[in-house]
Structure formats: structure tokens, C-alpha cells
Amino acid sequence: VMLHSPLALSLLLIAVSSNLAMAIKKEKRAPQTLSRGWGDEITWVQTYEEGLYQAKKSNKPLMVIHHLEDCQYCQALKKAFAENDEIQEMAQNNFVMLNIMHETTDKNLSPDGQYVPRIMFVDPSLTVRADITGRYSNRLYTYEPQDIPFLIENMKKALRLIQTEL
Description:
mainly alpha
């Protein structure tokens, strides 16, 4: 028996639309951003090449963070980095930002080895700043959570160098 009553039709519509709503809801998970936990408000570039292009175009230094998901030192630094308002603000406004979990082909980005975490700066003339280093002589570009104030100073140094040199 075909039901032509408005009730049957509306029940059918409700069933279809609630299934649809469930399907849409399932899809609407938070998208995985390029931030990988380093700062969701920051605009991250996807590749080193894109970072170089943006640095040159915007006349901002490029900050490259090499890290790995299963590295506890990276995780600790990431947490401190993401929770620091001054870093987040500078990263959002004054830098082209890249965090990557693989090595680049640019050997200048690993002058003293391919360890993680490693943070390096590239100025808008596309020069890797080997002169902006962290506190450790055995791993020049590594930072620990307690080195955040030092990293902030290095970010400011990278900005100053652009103004004085370029």
C-alpha cells in the first residue's frame, strides 16, 4: 500500500535529513592545520620553497622549525612555543612561518647536522642566518623550553638584521 499521507512523507523527510545531518556532522571535524600544534592562529606556509617566496615577497624573515612528531624535546619546545604570547604575536605578524617534519634539500639549513628540534632564520634576501644561534655549542640551532626568552631575542635579532642590512 502506497502511503500518500502528508505524515508519511514528512516522516520520510525527517529520516533522510537527520541521516544527512549526521553525515555532515561526521565530516565537520576540525581540519588538520599546518600548525601541527605550534600555533593555530599563525599562518603557516606548506613548503620551504613557498616560505622563501613569501619571505622575499613580503620582506619578512622566514622562520624554519624542524621537528618530529615522536621527539619528546620537540613536543616540549612546541608546547612552550605555542603557549608564549609574545612568540605567537611576532610569528603571526612579523615572520613567514614554516614547521616541517622532513629535511629540506637546502644544506644551509643543516650547517651542523640534521637534529631536531632545530630553528633557523632565513632573511628576505634568502640568506640562511647561520649567525642566529641558540645556547648550545654542540647543537647550534636547538632550543629547550627554558630557552624561550632566548628564542624571542633571536626573533627580534632576525627582525633587526633586516632593517639594518637589507
